[in-house]
Amino acid sequence: MDHAADTFRTDLMTITRHVLNEQSRHPESRGDLTILLSHIVLGCKFVASAVNKAGLAKLTGLAGETNVQQGEEQKKLDVLSNEVFVNALVSSGRTCVLVSEEDEKATFVDPKLRGKYCVCFDPLDGSSNIDCGVSIGTIFGIYMIKNQDTVTLEEVLQPGKDMIAAGYCMYGSSCTLVLSTGNGVNGFTLDPSLGEFIMTHPDIKIPPKGKIYSVNEGNAKNWDTPTAKYVEKCKYPTDGSSPKSLRYIGSMVADVHRTLLYGGIFLYPADKKSPSGKLRVMYEVFPMSFLMEEAGGQSFTGKGRSLDLIPTDIHERSPIFLGSSDDVEEIKALYAEEAKKAGSA
């Protein structure tokens, strides 16, 4: 008797099959986005392997260069991950410009290798957590460029609502890739025995209200009034409901992933120390906001919808409040109340 069918499932939805299915919904598609995504997936597999070996290969030490935006010394894994993704994206032949957290300037691809897409990415978010084994990840967002041959930096500075796909890959207890091409959100887990991402979280929908809030309370003394009021309400609700639980990892990918699956709210507000917020618009705020909205949640800057922002610099920063729709509505109401007071003063 053949037990192979009992041992190996042949009906698994791999990420490759999923992307091809998405492509088939657009008969006019030439498969360029499919090819680009396959190169991003390959980059994620490479980085996942490097992260797993980091301690043994001594890849967790400092590389000696300083990250342009953070003023921090780069970790070796940061440098490696950036090289991996730049090479993967350029070799796809489908990109014309790349924006990386690790590079001060945008990378314009050689005209002979150009395609119609711009990819903005943080190759290794949360890298300060590498040495202690906390989950870290890659974040990416994809835009279409009208004219790849004459692309300029101004064309790269598009609002998040123009993004056509976004995702992140989290390297933790398992390697999980969450992706949206504008038709819902799906999660895939890397099966090491197959070397393939398998769909494990189909059609992710964030609960409308959650029991968790996620914020760095060490910055509380510098918060504005709406943020301080909201966190106070989370801890000491006045409507008789139970207090929310605080969960904060300090790695955006891990904190947003938990928020997406369990509901609640993730906050990184502006404060006296960082008046423009700390998270970068193009490769942190926009991709995560895109995913959150596709999953039925909301993302807010303190002034408006995150995806409506039009950046003026590739490394621009913004405050962010994202998560369950009802929870984000509460913080929006507090900011509206503050604006009304300021207007009548």
UniProtKB/TrEMBL annotation:
GO terms for cellular component: cytosol. GO terms for molecular function: fructose 1,6-bisphosphate 1-phosphatase activity; metal ion binding. One of its GO terms (biological process) is fructose 1,6-bisphosphate metabolic process. InterPro entries: FBPase_C_dom, FBPase_class-1, FBPase_N, FBPtase. It catalyses: beta-D-fructose 1,6-bisphosphate + H2O = beta-D-fructose 6-phosphate + phosphate. Gene3D superfamilies: 3.40.190.80, Fructose-1,6-Bisphosphatase, subunit A, domain 1 (3.30.540.10). Keywords: Carbohydrate metabolism, Cytoplasm, Hydrolase, Magnesium, Metal-binding. This is Fructose-1,6-bisphosphatase, cytosolic. It comes from Aegilops tauschii subsp. strangulata.
